[in-house]
Amino acid sequence: MTQEVRTVQTTIENTASSQQNQDVGKGRGVYISTYGCQMNVNDTERMYSLLEMQNFTPVEKPEDASLIIINSCSVREKPVHKVYSEVGTFRKMKEKNPDLKIGVGGCVGQQEKDNLIKNQPMIDFVFGTDQIDNLPTFVAKTFEGEKKQVQAKFEHRSPYHIETMVRNPGVATFVNITKGCDNFCTFCVVPYTRGREKSRPLQHILTDVRHLVKRGVKEVTLLGQNVNSYKGDEGVDFADLLAKVARETDIERIRYTTSHPKDFNQKLADTMAAHQDKVMEYIHLPFQSGNTRILDRMNRNYTREEYLEKIAMLKRTIPNLVLSTDIIVGFPGETEAEFMDTVTMVQEVGFETIFAFKYSPRPFTKAAKFEDQVDEETKTRRLNYLFDEHDKMAFELVKRYEGQTMKVLVENVDREDGKIQGRSSSNKLVHFLGTPDLIGKTVDVKITKAFPAVFRGELL
Ligand code: SAH
Ligand code: SF4
Ligand code: F3S
């Protein structure tokens, strides 16, 4: 049996199991509130697709729903608080509409399991990140009257076989290639909420990309917590996968996220350069801290110098490369001088975009138990300082793009005012004026004004 046939069979099996309770969604609306990373955005699409097979109708407002699901994130404390405040809001709706059912999925669901139901009696069911394919079954049971279901097992033994399910993929979409993470950075909850790392078989990914191309997709982002530790069948690594997607499918643009600096090698950089017609010249490479002692305490497995060497190698190998990064400030024990190493790292590499966060202690993680936690005020001060220093640099850095011509893939056009939104090959958001027939086309745009987060331009 070929891999392609097997993927189709999985779909049929999924469909068959959901047909058992196909009527449950008739006349009922479903609303999913989504937090967190692209994995969650993709998981939400999967949930909507499965629930549509049960005849639920997706609705825009929670007030119109009979089923509300919160697809939660636990990476920092803030998004966890949002789950509780949303549950509070939905509770009031439930008082008015007794048919309304509320479920919590995603990383907080995985982390809290039964605790959520104990603390929040209004929640009808909780499910973990590995239980999405069983959602139709426990939704049906919930509407049949079964109370307080908790499904948060990891399917440790089964291989990672899921096919991409997006309702309206549009011009650019995501394809999962790995799930989970085995790196155990000492600050991070993801290895606990997403389980052990697994890779999808190469042929399944190629089949998905080909199907998406048929549906009009021009750009895919290969998605994983740690894409460059991808291990496909027969010794295929991430660089091989990238080359195969470029060579063996008709997709126009390929991106990927996220990469870990320790796994980024010359082979991958060479592959990007060799396929620059399709693989975009943009890399998101989180460094987290610019200080080697802190990196060691974070269990990141590289030093400041090693990170800088990789950046030099990447810039040498990939012409016009654009980089972005993630940073944590106020990690336990971080001194003022160690924090300044992070600031100089941003300046030395010349990141045009940074995503920086105050360290937030997470359940199960080692760093949450470190005794030398940094106080909130210091964290806030350091974060603001870092953003200010970055702003000073970034506005200057991006000025060099003014007057340049960029290849922009048109994603959206506002039909009323003709405002187009697209992305350059270097992942810059570009706004310009045009017509709806340009959606899905790659056009030349001259940049007239460049800000760090968005460019303005004119269609050539
Ligand atoms: N897998 C990706 C990132 C996953 S989480 C990677 O390894 O790069 C996304 C970002 O959230 C991280 O890069 C980190 O900067 C931030 N983050 C993770 N845990 C955090 C914590 N406990 N406090 C603050 N920021 C955190
Ligand atoms: Fe978290 Fe580190 Fe894994 Fe990224 S690599 S998901 S930061 S443990
Ligand atoms: Fe959040 Fe889970 Fe993603 S913790 S960042 S939704 S993997």
UniProtKB/TrEMBL annotation:
Its EC number is 2.8.4.3. [4Fe-4S] cluster 2 binds at C181, C185, C188. Monomer. Binds 2 [4Fe-4S] clusters. One cluster is coordinated with 3 cysteines and an exchangeable S-adenosyl-L-methionine. The keyword Iron-sulfur applies. It is found in: Cytoplasm. PROSITE patterns: MTTASE_N (PS51449), MTTASE_RADICAL (PS01278), RADICAL_SAM (PS51918), TRAM (PS50926). It holds the Pfam family TRAM. Belongs to the methylthiotransferase family. MiaB subfamily. It comes from Bdellovibrio bacteriovorus. Residues 167-396 form the Radical SAM core domain. Its cofactor is [4Fe-4S] cluster. [4Fe-4S] cluster 1 binds at C37, C73, C107. Residues 28-144 form the MTTase N-terminal domain. One of its GO terms (cellular component) is cytosol. This is tRNA-2-methylthio-N(6)-dimethylallyladenosine synthase. InterPro entries: Elp3/MiaA/NifB-like_rSAM, Methylthiotransferase, Methylthiotransferase_CS, Methylthiotransferase_N, Methylthiotransferase_N_sf, MiaB_methiolase, rSAM, rSAM_horseshoe.
